[in-house]
Give the backbone structure.
Amino acid sequence: MAISEDDIARVRAATDIVALITEQVALKRVGRRWVGLCPFHAEKTGSFYVNAEEGRYHCFGCRVSGDQITWLRETQRLDFVDAVRQLAERAGIELTEDESERHLHQERRRLYEAMDQAVEWYHDQLMNAPEARVAREYLKSRGINGEVARRFKLGFAPDEWDRLTTSLKFSPAQLEGTGLGFKNRLGRYQDFLRARLIFPIFDSSGRAVAIGGRVIPGYTDETRREGKYKNSPETPIYSKRRTLYALNWAKDDIIREGEIIVCEGYTDVIAFFEVGLPRAVATCGTALGEDHFRTLRNFATRIVLAYDADGAGQSAAESVYQWERQYEVDVVVASLPAGHDPAELAREDPDALRRAVAEAIPFIEFRLERVLLAADLSTPTGRAKAAEAALKVVNEHPSDLVRDQYLIRVADRLGLDVDTLRHSARGTPRRSSPVSSNETPPPRAPVGDLPRPGTEALRLLLANPAGVREDLPARLFVDPRQRLVATALSEHGSVSSAVDALRSRGEVEAAELLDALVVMDAPAELDPEAVIAQLVRSAVTHELRVIDRELRQGVIEPGLAMSVVRDVKERVNELEGPTRQAAIADLREWLEARGVA
Ligand SMILES: [Zn+2]
Protein backbone atom coordinates (compact mmCIF):
# COMPACT_ATOMS: atom_id res chain seq x y z
CA MET A 1 0.00 0.00 0.00
CA ALA A 2 1.50 3.24 -1.13
CA ILE A 3 -0.56 5.57 1.04
CA SER A 4 0.84 6.39 4.46
CA GLU A 5 -1.04 6.00 7.75
CA ASP A 6 -0.71 9.75 8.23
CA ASP A 7 -2.40 10.50 4.94
CA ILE A 8 -5.21 8.09 5.74
CA ALA A 9 -5.77 9.76 9.10
CA ARG A 10 -5.76 13.22 7.46
CA VAL A 11 -8.27 12.13 4.82
CA ARG A 12 -10.56 10.64 7.46
CA ALA A 13 -10.37 13.75 9.62
CA ALA A 14 -11.09 16.04 6.67
CA THR A 15 -14.15 14.13 5.43
CA ASP A 16 -17.57 14.83 6.92
CA ILE A 17 -19.08 11.34 6.86
CA VAL A 18 -22.66 12.61 7.16
CA ALA A 19 -22.22 14.86 4.11
CA LEU A 20 -20.62 11.99 2.20
CA ILE A 21 -23.36 9.47 2.99
CA THR A 22 -26.24 11.89 2.39
CA GLU A 23 -25.14 12.13 -1.23
CA GLN A 24 -26.77 8.72 -1.54
CA VAL A 25 -28.85 8.07 1.55
CA ALA A 26 -31.25 10.37 3.39
CA LEU A 27 -30.18 10.66 7.05
CA LYS A 28 -32.04 12.30 9.86
CA ARG A 29 -30.73 13.39 13.19
CA VAL A 30 -31.66 11.35 16.25
CA GLY A 31 -30.01 12.54 19.43
CA ARG A 32 -26.33 12.86 18.67
CA ARG A 33 -26.48 10.27 15.87
CA TRP A 34 -27.83 10.13 12.32
CA VAL A 35 -30.20 7.42 11.13
CA GLY A 36 -31.40 6.33 7.69
CA LEU A 37 -32.54 3.40 5.60
CA CYS A 38 -29.65 1.05 5.07
CA PRO A 39 -28.37 1.09 1.48
CA PHE A 40 -26.92 -2.39 1.88
CA HIS A 41 -30.12 -4.26 2.65
CA ALA A 42 -33.80 -3.74 1.97
CA GLU A 43 -35.66 -2.32 4.94
CA LYS A 44 -38.61 -0.12 5.81
CA THR A 45 -37.40 1.30 9.12
CA GLY A 46 -33.95 2.78 9.55
CA SER A 47 -31.29 0.56 11.12
CA PHE A 48 -28.40 2.45 9.57
CA TYR A 49 -26.64 4.68 12.12
CA VAL A 50 -23.88 7.21 11.65
CA ASN A 51 -21.59 8.75 14.23
CA ALA A 52 -20.41 12.04 12.72
CA GLU A 53 -17.71 12.79 15.31
CA GLU A 54 -15.96 9.44 14.95
CA GLY A 55 -16.70 9.14 11.22
CA ARG A 56 -18.29 5.69 11.43
CA TYR A 57 -21.45 4.01 10.18
CA HIS A 58 -23.08 0.76 11.26
CA CYS A 59 -26.26 -1.07 10.32
CA PHE A 60 -27.99 -3.05 13.05
CA GLY A 61 -29.91 -4.98 10.38
CA CYS A 62 -27.25 -6.40 8.09
CA ARG A 63 -24.28 -5.40 10.27
CA VAL A 64 -22.21 -3.65 7.67
CA SER A 65 -20.01 -0.98 9.15
CA GLY A 66 -17.12 1.22 8.28
CA ASP A 67 -15.67 4.67 7.84
CA GLN A 68 -15.52 7.19 5.01
CA ILE A 69 -13.09 5.03 3.02
CA THR A 70 -15.12 1.82 3.35
CA TRP A 71 -18.23 3.76 2.37
CA LEU A 72 -16.71 4.79 -0.96
CA ARG A 73 -15.24 1.34 -1.53
CA GLU A 74 -18.57 -0.40 -0.97
CA THR A 75 -20.86 2.03 -2.74
CA GLN A 76 -18.61 2.96 -5.66
CA ARG A 77 -16.77 -0.35 -5.94
CA LEU A 78 -13.39 1.34 -5.59
CA ASP A 79 -10.27 -0.27 -4.26
CA PHE A 80 -8.73 1.11 -1.10
CA VAL A 81 -6.18 3.35 -2.79
CA ASP A 82 -8.68 4.85 -5.22
CA ALA A 83 -11.15 5.49 -2.41
CA VAL A 84 -8.52 7.36 -0.38
CA ARG A 85 -7.52 9.31 -3.48
CA GLN A 86 -11.07 10.34 -4.23
CA LEU A 87 -11.62 11.50 -0.66
CA ALA A 88 -8.31 13.39 -0.74
CA GLU A 89 -9.38 15.11 -3.94
CA ARG A 90 -12.72 16.14 -2.39
CA ALA A 91 -10.99 17.50 0.68
CA GLY A 92 -8.21 19.21 -1.27
CA ILE A 93 -5.53 17.13 0.41
CA GLU A 94 -2.28 16.39 -1.41
CA LEU A 95 -1.27 12.77 -0.80
CA THR A 96 2.36 11.86 -0.33
CA GLU A 97 2.40 8.93 -2.74
CA ASP A 98 5.46 7.41 -4.29
CA GLU A 99 6.43 8.25 -7.84
CA SER A 100 5.34 5.05 -9.62
CA GLU A 101 1.91 5.18 -7.99
CA ARG A 102 1.45 8.74 -9.11
CA HIS A 103 2.51 7.80 -12.61
CA LEU A 104 0.00 4.92 -12.83
CA HIS A 105 -2.73 7.14 -11.50
CA GLN A 106 -2.03 9.81 -14.12
CA GLU A 107 -2.02 7.21 -16.88
CA ARG A 108 -5.44 5.98 -15.81
CA ARG A 109 -6.70 9.53 -15.66
CA ARG A 110 -5.60 10.09 -19.27
CA LEU A 111 -7.51 6.95 -20.30
CA TYR A 112 -10.67 8.17 -18.57
CA GLU A 113 -10.29 11.53 -20.30
CA ALA A 114 -9.90 9.92 -23.71
CA MET A 115 -12.91 7.67 -23.19
CA ASP A 116 -14.97 10.61 -22.05
CA GLN A 117 -14.05 12.66 -25.15
CA ALA A 118 -14.75 9.71 -27.44
CA VAL A 119 -18.20 9.17 -25.91
CA GLU A 120 -19.01 12.87 -26.44
CA TRP A 121 -17.74 12.70 -30.01
CA TYR A 122 -19.80 9.60 -30.91
CA HIS A 123 -22.85 11.18 -29.28
CA ASP A 124 -22.39 14.38 -31.26
CA GLN A 125 -22.15 12.32 -34.46
CA LEU A 126 -25.45 10.57 -33.72
CA MET A 127 -27.30 13.77 -32.88
CA ASN A 128 -25.90 16.00 -35.63
CA ALA A 129 -24.06 14.22 -38.46
CA PRO A 130 -26.12 13.97 -41.69
CA GLU A 131 -24.83 10.44 -42.35
CA ALA A 132 -26.16 9.31 -38.93
CA ARG A 133 -29.71 9.64 -40.23
CA VAL A 134 -29.93 5.91 -40.80
CA ALA A 135 -29.01 5.34 -37.14
CA ARG A 136 -31.52 7.91 -35.91
CA GLU A 137 -34.24 6.31 -38.01
CA TYR A 138 -33.37 2.87 -36.74
CA LEU A 139 -33.61 4.12 -33.14
CA LYS A 140 -36.95 5.76 -33.85
CA SER A 141 -38.25 2.48 -35.27
CA ARG A 142 -37.27 0.85 -31.97
CA GLY A 143 -39.13 3.50 -29.97
CA ILE A 144 -35.97 5.32 -28.86
CA ASN A 145 -36.36 9.07 -29.26
CA GLY A 146 -33.88 11.94 -28.96
CA GLU A 147 -34.47 12.42 -25.27
CA VAL A 148 -33.63 8.79 -24.56
CA ALA A 149 -30.58 8.97 -26.83
CA ARG A 150 -29.35 11.94 -24.79
CA ARG A 151 -30.09 10.28 -21.46
CA PHE A 152 -28.03 7.20 -22.37
CA LYS A 153 -25.49 9.21 -24.38
CA LEU A 154 -25.97 6.95 -27.40
CA GLY A 155 -23.59 7.49 -30.28
CA PHE A 156 -22.81 6.73 -33.88
CA ALA A 157 -19.61 5.45 -35.45
CA PRO A 158 -19.43 6.39 -39.17
CA ASP A 159 -18.53 3.80 -41.76
CA GLU A 160 -14.90 4.82 -42.07
CA TRP A 161 -11.83 3.17 -40.72
CA ASP A 162 -10.20 6.06 -38.84
CA ARG A 163 -12.70 8.91 -38.36
CA LEU A 164 -12.44 8.91 -34.57
CA THR A 165 -8.69 8.48 -34.59
CA THR A 166 -8.16 11.41 -36.95
CA SER A 167 -10.80 13.66 -35.38
CA LEU A 168 -9.55 13.39 -31.80
CA LYS A 169 -5.86 13.81 -31.15
CA PHE A 170 -5.28 10.85 -28.87
CA SER A 171 -1.83 9.49 -28.12
CA PRO A 172 -1.10 5.86 -29.14
CA ALA A 173 -1.10 5.03 -25.42
CA GLN A 174 -4.59 6.48 -25.06
CA LEU A 175 -5.92 4.70 -28.15
CA GLU A 176 -4.54 1.32 -27.15
CA GLY A 177 -5.11 1.80 -23.43
CA THR A 178 -8.81 2.47 -23.92
CA GLY A 179 -9.27 0.02 -26.77
CA LEU A 180 -10.75 2.86 -28.86
CA GLY A 181 -8.15 2.24 -31.56
CA PHE A 182 -5.51 -0.24 -32.62
CA LYS A 183 -2.51 -0.38 -34.94
CA ASN A 184 -3.34 -2.10 -38.22
CA ARG A 185 -1.04 -4.17 -40.42
CA LEU A 186 0.21 -1.05 -42.18
CA GLY A 187 1.31 0.35 -38.84
CA ARG A 188 -1.42 3.00 -38.78
CA TYR A 189 -4.01 3.57 -36.11
CA GLN A 190 -7.55 2.54 -36.88
CA ASP A 191 -10.88 2.89 -35.01
CA PHE A 192 -12.04 -0.11 -33.01
CA LEU A 193 -15.67 0.37 -34.07
CA ARG A 194 -17.10 1.55 -37.37
CA ALA A 195 -20.59 1.71 -38.85
CA ARG A 196 -22.27 0.98 -35.54
CA LEU A 197 -24.64 2.41 -33.04
CA ILE A 198 -22.63 3.16 -29.89
CA PHE A 199 -23.75 2.37 -26.34
CA PRO A 200 -21.25 3.94 -23.95
CA ILE A 201 -20.58 1.98 -20.76
CA PHE A 202 -19.98 3.83 -17.49
CA ASP A 203 -18.74 2.58 -14.16
CA SER A 204 -21.02 2.90 -11.14
CA SER A 205 -19.69 6.35 -10.33
CA GLY A 206 -20.53 7.57 -13.83
CA ARG A 207 -17.13 7.58 -15.52
CA ALA A 208 -17.11 6.35 -19.14
CA VAL A 209 -14.98 3.19 -19.25
CA ALA A 210 -15.90 1.38 -22.49
CA ILE A 211 -18.15 1.31 -25.54
CA GLY A 212 -20.44 -1.30 -27.01
CA GLY A 213 -21.38 -1.17 -30.69
CA ARG A 214 -24.39 -2.64 -32.46
CA VAL A 215 -24.71 -3.06 -36.22
CA ILE A 216 -27.34 -0.87 -37.85
CA PRO A 217 -29.68 -2.83 -40.14
CA GLY A 218 -29.60 -1.51 -43.67
CA TYR A 219 -26.40 0.47 -43.12
CA THR A 220 -23.64 -2.00 -42.49
CA ASP A 221 -21.91 -3.73 -45.34
CA GLU A 222 -23.31 -7.25 -45.10
CA THR A 223 -20.01 -8.81 -46.11
CA ARG A 224 -18.34 -7.64 -42.92
CA ARG A 225 -18.27 -10.72 -40.79
CA GLU A 226 -18.45 -9.39 -37.31
CA GLY A 227 -21.00 -10.02 -34.61
CA LYS A 228 -24.15 -8.01 -34.08
CA TYR A 229 -22.59 -6.61 -30.92
CA LYS A 230 -18.98 -5.73 -30.32
CA ASN A 231 -17.61 -4.45 -27.00
CA SER A 232 -14.39 -2.73 -25.95
CA PRO A 233 -11.66 -5.13 -24.86
CA GLU A 234 -10.60 -5.35 -21.21
CA THR A 235 -8.44 -2.35 -20.33
CA PRO A 236 -6.91 -0.84 -17.20
CA ILE A 237 -10.18 1.09 -16.72
CA TYR A 238 -12.64 -1.61 -17.86
CA SER A 239 -13.27 -5.02 -16.36
CA LYS A 240 -16.12 -6.99 -17.94
CA ARG A 241 -16.45 -9.23 -14.93
CA ARG A 242 -17.18 -6.27 -12.69
CA THR A 243 -19.00 -3.80 -14.86
CA LEU A 244 -22.76 -3.66 -15.16
CA TYR A 245 -24.18 -1.50 -17.92
CA ALA A 246 -26.42 1.34 -16.63
CA LEU A 247 -25.66 0.79 -12.94
CA ASN A 248 -24.66 4.47 -12.78
CA TRP A 249 -28.16 5.55 -13.80
CA ALA A 250 -30.07 2.74 -12.05
CA LYS A 251 -28.31 3.01 -8.68
CA ASP A 252 -30.72 5.39 -6.98
CA ASP A 253 -33.86 3.49 -7.91
CA ILE A 254 -32.23 0.16 -7.06
CA ILE A 255 -31.39 1.41 -3.57
CA ARG A 256 -34.85 2.90 -3.13
CA GLU A 257 -36.66 -0.27 -4.25
CA GLY A 258 -34.24 -2.89 -2.92
CA GLU A 259 -34.54 -4.57 -6.31
CA ILE A 260 -32.33 -4.85 -9.35
CA ILE A 261 -33.34 -6.10 -12.78
CA VAL A 262 -30.65 -7.88 -14.75
CA CYS A 263 -31.09 -8.24 -18.49
CA GLU A 264 -28.98 -9.20 -21.47
CA GLY A 265 -28.82 -6.22 -23.77
CA TYR A 266 -28.44 -2.47 -23.79
CA THR A 267 -31.81 -1.95 -25.48
CA ASP A 268 -33.48 -4.18 -22.87
CA VAL A 269 -32.12 -1.92 -20.14
CA ILE A 270 -33.40 1.16 -21.94
CA ALA A 271 -36.81 -0.50 -22.35
CA PHE A 272 -37.10 -1.03 -18.59
CA PHE A 273 -36.23 2.61 -17.92
CA GLU A 274 -38.88 3.62 -20.45
CA VAL A 275 -41.68 1.60 -18.84
CA GLY A 276 -40.97 3.19 -15.47
CA LEU A 277 -38.59 0.62 -13.97
CA PRO A 278 -35.30 2.54 -13.98
CA ARG A 279 -33.47 -0.14 -12.02
CA ALA A 280 -32.25 -2.39 -14.83
CA VAL A 281 -28.66 -3.27 -15.65
CA ALA A 282 -26.99 -5.60 -18.14
CA THR A 283 -23.81 -7.59 -18.19
CA CYS A 284 -21.55 -6.50 -21.03
CA GLY A 285 -20.92 -9.43 -23.31
CA THR A 286 -20.28 -11.92 -20.48
CA ALA A 287 -22.46 -14.22 -18.41
CA LEU A 288 -23.65 -13.03 -15.01
CA GLY A 289 -20.83 -14.08 -12.69
CA GLU A 290 -19.73 -13.96 -9.10
CA ASP A 291 -18.12 -10.51 -9.32
CA HIS A 292 -21.35 -9.11 -10.70
CA PHE A 293 -23.22 -10.68 -7.76
CA ARG A 294 -20.87 -9.09 -5.29
CA THR A 295 -21.58 -5.70 -6.87
CA LEU A 296 -25.35 -6.29 -7.04
CA ARG A 297 -25.39 -7.29 -3.39
CA ASN A 298 -24.16 -3.86 -2.38
CA PHE A 299 -27.22 -2.27 -3.89
CA ALA A 300 -30.15 -4.67 -3.51
CA THR A 301 -31.13 -8.07 -2.13
CA ARG A 302 -33.76 -8.98 -4.73
CA ILE A 303 -32.29 -9.78 -8.12
CA VAL A 304 -34.74 -10.20 -11.00
CA LEU A 305 -33.39 -12.02 -14.04
CA ALA A 306 -35.16 -10.67 -17.10
CA TYR A 307 -33.68 -12.71 -19.90
CA ASP A 308 -35.70 -14.24 -22.66
CA ALA A 309 -36.98 -17.63 -21.52
CA ASP A 310 -34.15 -19.68 -22.99
CA GLY A 311 -31.49 -17.37 -21.63
CA ALA A 312 -32.75 -17.56 -18.06
CA GLY A 313 -33.19 -21.32 -18.19
CA GLN A 314 -29.59 -21.74 -19.17
CA SER A 315 -28.12 -19.81 -16.26
CA ALA A 316 -25.90 -22.11 -14.24
CA ALA A 317 -28.29 -23.22 -11.52
CA GLU A 318 -25.64 -24.39 -9.14
CA SER A 319 -23.83 -21.06 -9.12
CA VAL A 320 -27.04 -19.12 -8.73
CA TYR A 321 -28.06 -21.11 -5.61
CA GLN A 322 -24.60 -20.76 -4.19
CA TRP A 323 -24.52 -17.00 -4.68
CA GLU A 324 -28.03 -16.68 -3.25
CA ARG A 325 -26.77 -18.18 -0.02
CA GLN A 326 -23.37 -16.61 0.00
CA TYR A 327 -24.58 -13.07 -0.69
CA GLU A 328 -27.96 -13.45 1.04
CA VAL A 329 -29.94 -12.36 -1.99
CA ASP A 330 -33.11 -13.70 -3.61
CA VAL A 331 -32.79 -14.52 -7.28
CA VAL A 332 -36.13 -14.51 -9.08
CA VAL A 333 -37.01 -14.81 -12.75
CA ALA A 334 -39.40 -12.61 -14.72
CA SER A 335 -41.31 -14.96 -17.06
CA LEU A 336 -41.47 -13.30 -20.44
CA PRO A 337 -43.70 -14.70 -23.19
CA ALA A 338 -41.77 -17.17 -25.34
CA GLY A 339 -39.70 -15.54 -28.06
CA HIS A 340 -39.85 -12.07 -26.51
CA ASP A 341 -37.03 -10.05 -25.08
CA PRO A 342 -37.81 -7.14 -22.75
CA ALA A 343 -37.30 -4.53 -25.49
CA GLU A 344 -39.89 -6.18 -27.74
CA LEU A 345 -42.35 -6.68 -24.93
CA ALA A 346 -41.98 -3.04 -23.85
CA ARG A 347 -43.09 -1.90 -27.31
CA GLU A 348 -45.98 -4.35 -27.63
CA ASP A 349 -47.33 -4.49 -24.09
CA PRO A 350 -45.55 -2.38 -21.46
CA ASP A 351 -47.98 -3.55 -18.76
CA ALA A 352 -47.00 -7.16 -19.40
CA LEU A 353 -43.34 -6.25 -18.89
CA ARG A 354 -44.05 -4.51 -15.58
CA ARG A 355 -46.19 -7.45 -14.50
CA ALA A 356 -43.45 -9.95 -15.36
CA VAL A 357 -41.14 -8.16 -12.93
CA ALA A 358 -43.72 -7.78 -10.17
CA GLU A 359 -44.69 -11.46 -10.45
CA ALA A 360 -41.20 -12.86 -10.87
CA ILE A 361 -40.84 -16.37 -9.41
CA PRO A 362 -37.96 -18.11 -7.60
CA PHE A 363 -35.27 -19.47 -9.87
CA ILE A 364 -35.95 -23.12 -8.96
CA GLU A 365 -39.65 -22.71 -9.67
CA PHE A 366 -38.92 -21.16 -13.03
CA ARG A 367 -36.72 -24.08 -14.04
CA LEU A 368 -39.21 -26.61 -12.77
CA GLU A 369 -42.08 -25.02 -14.68
CA ARG A 370 -40.10 -25.22 -17.89
CA VAL A 371 -39.53 -28.95 -17.40
CA LEU A 372 -43.15 -29.64 -16.51
CA LEU A 373 -44.56 -27.55 -19.35
CA ALA A 374 -42.40 -29.39 -21.87
CA ALA A 375 -43.48 -32.83 -20.60
CA ASP A 376 -46.16 -35.11 -22.00
CA LEU A 377 -48.35 -35.77 -18.99
CA SER A 378 -50.96 -37.86 -20.79
CA THR A 379 -49.15 -41.19 -20.50
CA PRO A 380 -47.57 -43.00 -17.54
CA THR A 381 -44.21 -43.08 -19.34
CA GLY A 382 -44.44 -39.36 -20.08
CA ARG A 383 -45.16 -38.62 -16.42
CA ALA A 384 -42.28 -40.83 -15.27
CA LYS A 385 -39.92 -39.04 -17.63
CA ALA A 386 -41.18 -35.66 -16.42
CA ALA A 387 -40.66 -36.80 -12.82
CA GLU A 388 -37.06 -37.74 -13.58
CA ALA A 389 -36.35 -34.43 -15.24
CA ALA A 390 -38.06 -32.54 -12.41
CA LEU A 391 -36.08 -34.43 -9.75
CA LYS A 392 -32.89 -33.42 -11.48
CA VAL A 393 -33.87 -29.77 -11.27
CA VAL A 394 -35.02 -30.06 -7.64
CA ASN A 395 -31.86 -31.88 -6.62
CA GLU A 396 -29.71 -28.98 -7.71
CA HIS A 397 -30.97 -26.94 -4.81
CA PRO A 398 -28.73 -27.12 -1.72
CA SER A 399 -31.46 -26.81 0.93
CA ASP A 400 -33.28 -29.95 2.15
CA LEU A 401 -36.32 -27.92 3.10
CA VAL A 402 -36.62 -26.18 -0.23
CA ARG A 403 -36.14 -29.47 -2.11
CA ASP A 404 -38.88 -31.19 -0.17
CA GLN A 405 -41.41 -28.42 -0.78
CA TYR A 406 -40.82 -28.66 -4.51
CA LEU A 407 -40.99 -32.47 -4.41
CA ILE A 408 -44.48 -32.17 -2.94
CA ARG A 409 -45.43 -29.77 -5.71
CA VAL A 410 -44.05 -32.06 -8.43
CA ALA A 411 -45.88 -35.07 -6.97
CA ASP A 412 -49.07 -33.06 -6.95
CA ARG A 413 -48.70 -31.89 -10.55
CA LEU A 414 -47.83 -35.33 -11.89
CA GLY A 415 -50.36 -37.24 -9.77
CA LEU A 416 -47.60 -39.30 -8.17
CA ASP A 417 -47.22 -40.48 -4.59
CA VAL A 418 -44.97 -38.04 -2.77
CA ASP A 419 -43.19 -40.73 -0.71
CA THR A 420 -42.34 -42.67 -3.85
CA LEU A 421 -40.94 -39.46 -5.30
CA ARG A 422 -38.95 -38.75 -2.13
CA HIS A 423 -37.57 -42.27 -2.34
CA SER A 424 -36.38 -41.81 -5.92
CA ALA A 425 -35.01 -38.38 -5.03
CA ARG A 426 -32.72 -40.02 -2.51
CA GLY A 427 -31.59 -42.44 -5.20
CA THR A 428 -30.78 -39.63 -7.62
CA PRO A 429 -27.26 -38.39 -6.98
CA ARG A 430 -27.23 -34.88 -5.61
CA ARG A 431 -24.90 -32.67 -7.57
CA SER A 432 -22.10 -31.71 -5.32
CA SER A 433 -22.29 -28.15 -4.19
CA PRO A 434 -19.48 -26.19 -2.61
CA VAL A 435 -21.96 -24.85 -0.06
CA SER A 436 -23.23 -27.55 2.27
CA SER A 437 -26.93 -27.53 3.02
CA ASN A 438 -26.61 -27.38 6.78
CA GLU A 439 -24.13 -24.56 6.80
CA THR A 440 -25.20 -21.82 9.17
CA PRO A 441 -24.29 -18.16 8.90
CA PRO A 442 -21.33 -17.05 11.01
CA PRO A 443 -22.18 -16.51 14.68
CA ARG A 444 -23.26 -13.00 15.44
CA ALA A 445 -22.69 -11.21 18.71
CA PRO A 446 -25.34 -8.55 19.11
CA VAL A 447 -24.55 -5.96 21.72
CA GLY A 448 -27.58 -7.09 23.73
CA ASP A 449 -26.16 -10.57 24.39
CA LEU A 450 -23.05 -9.30 26.14
CA PRO A 451 -22.72 -8.39 29.85
CA ARG A 452 -24.45 -5.08 30.45
CA PRO A 453 -21.87 -3.56 32.82
CA GLY A 454 -19.20 -3.99 30.14
CA THR A 455 -21.43 -2.54 27.42
CA GLU A 456 -22.24 0.53 29.48
CA ALA A 457 -18.62 0.98 30.46
CA LEU A 458 -17.58 0.87 26.79
CA ARG A 459 -20.25 3.40 25.84
CA LEU A 460 -18.98 5.64 28.59
CA LEU A 461 -15.41 5.18 27.37
CA LEU A 462 -16.49 6.16 23.84
CA ALA A 463 -18.42 9.20 25.04
CA ASN A 464 -15.81 10.51 27.46
CA PRO A 465 -12.52 8.73 26.85
CA ALA A 466 -10.25 11.09 28.78
CA GLY A 467 -12.49 11.38 31.83
CA VAL A 468 -12.92 7.72 32.70
CA ARG A 469 -10.09 5.79 31.05
CA GLU A 470 -8.13 5.54 34.32
CA ASP A 471 -11.14 4.09 36.15
CA LEU A 472 -12.04 1.55 33.48
CA PRO A 473 -8.90 -0.48 32.77
CA ALA A 474 -9.36 -3.22 30.18
CA ARG A 475 -8.78 -5.99 32.68
CA LEU A 476 -11.99 -5.16 34.55
CA PHE A 477 -13.97 -6.35 31.53
CA VAL A 478 -15.07 -9.94 32.04
CA ASP A 479 -16.18 -10.65 28.47
CA PRO A 480 -13.17 -11.24 26.18
CA ARG A 481 -14.66 -9.26 23.27
CA GLN A 482 -15.41 -6.29 25.48
CA ARG A 483 -11.94 -6.52 26.95
CA LEU A 484 -10.40 -6.48 23.44
CA VAL A 485 -12.42 -3.40 22.56
CA ALA A 486 -11.35 -1.62 25.76
CA THR A 487 -7.72 -2.47 25.08
CA ALA A 488 -7.91 -1.28 21.46
CA LEU A 489 -9.53 1.99 22.57
CA SER A 490 -6.81 2.61 25.13
CA GLU A 491 -4.10 1.98 22.53
CA HIS A 492 -5.48 4.04 19.64
CA GLY A 493 -6.36 7.67 19.16
CA SER A 494 -9.47 7.13 17.04
CA VAL A 495 -12.22 4.54 16.77
CA SER A 496 -11.36 3.92 13.11
CA SER A 497 -7.77 3.01 13.88
CA ALA A 498 -8.93 0.87 16.83
CA VAL A 499 -11.28 -1.01 14.46
CA ASP A 500 -8.50 -1.40 11.88
CA ALA A 501 -6.17 -2.77 14.56
CA LEU A 502 -8.76 -5.31 15.75
CA ARG A 503 -9.47 -6.45 12.21
CA SER A 504 -5.82 -6.77 11.32
CA ARG A 505 -5.38 -9.03 14.35
CA GLY A 506 -8.34 -11.14 13.16
CA GLU A 507 -10.57 -10.04 16.07
CA VAL A 508 -13.60 -9.63 13.82
CA GLU A 509 -16.23 -9.99 16.54
CA ALA A 510 -14.61 -7.35 18.70
CA ALA A 511 -14.31 -5.02 15.70
CA GLU A 512 -18.01 -5.51 14.96
CA LEU A 513 -18.90 -4.87 18.57
CA LEU A 514 -16.97 -1.60 18.54
CA ASP A 515 -18.64 -0.61 15.26
CA ALA A 516 -22.07 -1.15 16.78
CA LEU A 517 -21.27 0.65 20.01
CA VAL A 518 -19.88 3.74 18.37
CA VAL A 519 -23.10 4.53 16.53
CA MET A 520 -25.37 3.93 19.53
CA ASP A 521 -26.67 7.18 20.93
CA ALA A 522 -24.32 8.85 23.39
CA PRO A 523 -25.23 7.68 26.88
CA ALA A 524 -26.12 11.01 28.46
CA GLU A 525 -28.18 9.10 31.01
CA LEU A 526 -25.23 7.09 32.28
CA ASP A 527 -23.82 8.13 35.63
CA PRO A 528 -20.07 7.50 35.38
CA GLU A 529 -19.75 6.51 39.00
CA ALA A 530 -22.57 3.98 38.74
CA VAL A 531 -21.08 2.53 35.57
CA ILE A 532 -17.68 2.15 37.18
CA ALA A 533 -19.28 0.53 40.23
CA GLN A 534 -21.18 -1.92 38.04
CA LEU A 535 -18.08 -2.91 36.14
CA VAL A 536 -16.08 -3.42 39.33
CA ARG A 537 -18.92 -5.48 40.77
CA SER A 538 -19.12 -7.68 37.68
CA ALA A 539 -15.37 -8.23 37.78
CA VAL A 540 -15.56 -9.08 41.47
CA THR A 541 -18.48 -11.47 41.01
CA HIS A 542 -16.56 -13.16 38.24
CA GLU A 543 -13.49 -13.52 40.49
CA LEU A 544 -15.61 -14.92 43.33
CA ARG A 545 -16.89 -17.56 40.97
CA VAL A 546 -13.30 -18.42 40.11
CA ILE A 547 -12.52 -18.71 43.82
CA ASP A 548 -15.52 -21.02 44.28
CA ARG A 549 -14.18 -23.24 41.55
CA GLU A 550 -10.70 -23.22 43.03
CA LEU A 551 -12.20 -24.18 46.42
CA ARG A 552 -14.02 -27.13 44.88
CA GLN A 553 -10.91 -28.23 43.08
CA GLY A 554 -8.94 -27.95 46.33
CA VAL A 555 -6.54 -25.43 44.85
CA ILE A 556 -6.91 -23.06 47.79
CA GLU A 557 -7.35 -23.60 51.52
CA PRO A 558 -11.05 -23.54 52.52
CA GLY A 559 -11.07 -21.71 55.87
CA LEU A 560 -9.16 -18.66 54.70
CA ALA A 561 -10.90 -18.51 51.33
CA MET A 562 -14.35 -18.58 52.92
CA SER A 563 -13.59 -15.62 55.15
CA VAL A 564 -12.21 -13.66 52.18
CA VAL A 565 -15.25 -14.46 50.11
CA ARG A 566 -17.61 -13.38 52.90
CA ASP A 567 -15.75 -10.14 53.36
CA VAL A 568 -15.69 -9.38 49.64
CA LYS A 569 -19.40 -10.12 49.25
CA GLU A 570 -20.17 -7.57 51.94
CA ARG A 571 -18.15 -4.94 50.12
CA VAL A 572 -19.99 -5.73 46.86
CA ASN A 573 -23.29 -5.02 48.60
CA GLU A 574 -21.98 -1.66 49.75
CA LEU A 575 -21.54 -0.64 46.11
CA GLU A 576 -25.15 0.55 46.18
CA GLY A 577 -24.85 2.35 49.47
CA PRO A 578 -23.40 5.60 50.71
CA THR A 579 -19.91 4.17 51.17
CA ARG A 580 -19.77 3.21 47.52
CA GLN A 581 -16.57 5.00 46.60
CA ALA A 582 -14.69 3.45 49.47
CA ALA A 583 -16.08 0.04 48.53
CA ILE A 584 -15.01 0.48 44.91
CA ALA A 585 -11.52 1.41 46.00
CA ASP A 586 -11.33 -1.59 48.37
CA LEU A 587 -12.56 -4.03 45.77
CA ARG A 588 -10.24 -2.77 43.11
CA GLU A 589 -7.42 -3.28 45.55
CA TRP A 590 -8.65 -6.78 46.19
CA LEU A 591 -8.91 -7.48 42.48
CA GLU A 592 -5.42 -6.15 41.98
CA ALA A 593 -4.16 -8.55 44.63
CA ARG A 594 -5.91 -11.32 42.66
CA GLY A 595 -4.00 -10.10 39.62
CA VAL A 596 -7.12 -8.79 37.87
CA ALA A 597 -6.90 -5.03 37.86
ZN1 LIG B 1 -28.13 -2.91 6.53
Summary: Residues 447-593 form one domain. Confidence is low (pLDDT under 50) at residues 432-445. The first strand starts at residue 27 and ends at 30. The radius of gyration is 31 Å.
